[in-house]
Amino acid sequence: MRRILVLLSVAVVATLAWGAYWFVGARALDRAVTQVLAANGQLAAQGHQVRGFPNRFDLTLDAPRIAVPGLAWQAPFVQFFALTYRPHHLVAVFPHDQRIDMGSFGATLHSTDMRASVVMDPSLSLSLQRAALVAESPELVHGQQTQRADALRLASRALAPERHELAIEIERAFPDAGMMNMLDPQALWPRRFDILRLEGEVTLDRPLDRHVMQGAGPVPIAHALTGGRIAWLDDAEQTIDIRAQGRLEPDAAGRLSGDLTLDVTRWQTLLRRARDAGWISPEHAVLAEMALQSMVDPETPDQVQVALRLRAGDIMMGPVMLGTLPPLF
Question: Which candidate in 86, 93, 209, 242 could, as Cys together with 125 as Cys, close a disulfide (CB 3.0–4.6 Å)?
Answer without folding.
Answer: 209
